Amino acid sequence: MIVRRSAAVLAAVAVIGAAAPAAAAPSPSPSRPALPSALYGEGDPQYDGVWRQSLALLAQHTAGVAPPKAAVDWLTGQQCADGSFAPYRADTAKACDATTTVDTNQTAAAVQALAALGGHDAVTDKAVGWLKSVQNKDGGWGYVAGGASDTNSTSVVVGALAAAGEKPAEVKKDGRSPYDALLGLTLPCEGDGAGAFAFQPGKKGELTANADATAAGVLGSLGAGLAAGPGKGGQADAACAEADSPGQAAANGAAYLTDALAEGGHLVSALPGAEDQPDYGNTADAVVALAAQGSTEQARRSAAWLEKNAAGWAAQSGPAAYAQLILAAHATGADPRAFGGTDLVERLTATGPAPEKTTGTEKADEEKKDDSGPGFGVWWFVGVCLIAGIGIGFLFSGRAKKRQP
Predict the structure, then answer these.
(1) Amino acid 32: pLDDT
(2) Which residues is 65 bridged to in the sheet?
(3) Beta strands in 249-400 (DSSP E)
(4) Cα(267)–Cα(209) distance, rounded to whole angstroms?
(5) Could you tell me the end-to-end alpha-carbon distance of the chain, in angstroms, rounded to an integer?
(6) How far is the C-alpha of 229 from the C-alpha of 241, rounded, in Å?
(7) Phi and psi based region of residue 365 (left: phi greater than 0; alpha: psi -120 to 50; beta: remaining)
(8) Which fold has domain 7-27+41-388?
(9) What is the pLDDT of residues 73-120, one digit of tens each?
(10) CB-CB contact of 101 with 145 (8 Å)
(11) Regions in the chain scoring below 70 on pLDDT
(12) Which pLDDT score is estimated for 379?
């Protein structure tokens, strides 16, 4: 996902750019302490720990797997006293302060995961309170508090509000709701990028179509979250028309995505020099958005493309990538345990602590499968994605990565 181009992100890129490639398996050192055993993935969590943990828990929940208590406790323990979440706090005994890099995306993702699991109202209520306190005057949110509103951040917060039982249309700042902010980021039906969402306006206020932001904007306009199910929009394959309502904006965005996916079934990378390479993460996000809107035909075609092609990407990228594919399977009614011959749930589970229990059907499946370990890699090169606007799609993916020291 594209996120706010903040000074903190720029600093992150500087750190990442200076890192030298090394072995995949991290080892404790004076400069790099061992990662928590309850955390999913082996990559450096500095930029995405809460995000990938939230996606992992959410994906497991949609697949009927009860996440281990330790993993859930790790996530709730990351919360700051004011309700916000930073990407990763190595020492949670130390109170958050002005130097703690909290952000709306991590906070909103945590809310969505914990609300789905249930029993964490105190945590989610406090997080929603913080999100409301940093809402911008245009009704939207930026990646960091006070940052200019963008489609991706606004949409993931909308998903969090809805998950927590709020009515996003009634969450207003200066009389404007998040839907007003999203409508202001839609392109007209004429010209390049007709019906798409922009990430943010350009320096002169111009709007440029962005597939990643469009997938996010469709979900946000529907009031849906990262684990959206099929058919929420109810306007399948509608023609582009003036976006005078959130529902029409979602329909327009879905039409744009359908066109973008029609030729090859997938989106392509926005990385310079890699424009002809598939973008697996953003394709998975587009599948969820299209399914939620009700554009099931294209959603299923692109999900089928992911089944055939995305296993290697997920194995290299880690838990967030497996989670994205599970959420795409969930949205389209596919079986995440037989996704192109890969048991995505098993692979995701293997990147973290073992789940404590499963539902009846899942338990039977667990007893039948062999326990040979899957291959999975590190996933952490987030900074460049944040700056270049090429994330996972809908918020972080593992497309461009460096090995951890």
Answers:
(1) 58
(2) 358
(3) 267-268, 278-279, 357-358
(4) 13
(5) 25
(6) 25
(7) alpha
(8) Glycosyltransferase (1.50.10)
(9) 999 999 999 999 999 999 999 999 999 999 999 999 999 999 999 999
(10) no
(11) 1-33, 232-238, 355-405
(12) 31
The string of DSSP codes covering 209-228 is B-HHHHHHHHHHHHT--TT-
Distance in angstroms (rounded) separating the CA atoms of residues 340 and 351: 20
Please state, in angstroms and rounded to a whole number, the distance separating the CA atoms of residues 65 and 139: 36
Alpha-carbon distance 220 to 214, whole Å?
Answer: 10
Q: What is the pLDDT of residue 143?
A: 98
Q: How is the chain split into domains, by residue range?
A: 7-27+41-388
Q: Which residue has the tokens 């998950």?
A: 163
* pLDDT tens for each residue of 201-243: 999 999 999 999 999 999 999 999 999 998 755 555 567 899 9
Note the pLDDT of residue 354.
78
Would you state the structure tokens that stand for residue 295, as one six-digit string?
Answer: 């554009």
Contact 238, 229 (CB under 8 A): no
Q: Distance between CA atoms of 105 and 117, rounded to whole angstroms?
A: 19
Whole-number Å distance between alpha carbons of 162 and 63:
21
- Which amino acid type is present at position 160? A
3-state secondary structure the chain: CCCCCCHHHHHHHHHHHHCCCCCCCCCCCCCCCCCCCCCCCCCCCCCCHHHHHHHHHHHHHHCCEECCHHHHHHHHHCECCCCCECCCCCCCCCCCCCCCCCEHHHHHHHHHHHHHHCCCHHHHHHHHHHHHHCCCCCCCCCCCCCCCCCHHHHHHHHHHHHHCCCCHHHCCECCECHHHHHHCCECCCCCCCCCCEECCCCCCCCCCECHHHHHHHHHHHHCCCCCCCCCCCCCCCCCCCCCCCHHHHHHHHHHHHHHHHHCCCCEECCCCCCCCCEEHHHHHHHHHHHHHHCCHHHHHHHHHHHHHHCHHHHHHHCHHHHHHHHHHHHHHCCCHHHECCECHHHHHHCCCCCCCEECHHHHHHHHHCCCCCCCCCCCCCHHHHHHHCCCCCCCCCCCCCCCCC
Rounded Cα distance, 405 and 394, in Å: 27
**In angstroms, rounded to a whole number, what is the distance separating the alpha carbons of residues 92 and 363?**
34
* SS3 state of residue 379: coil
Residue corresponding to tokens 């029609």: 262
Distance CA 259, CA 49 (A): 34
Predicted TM-score of the model (pTM)? 0.83
- Tokens 């011959």 correspond to 341
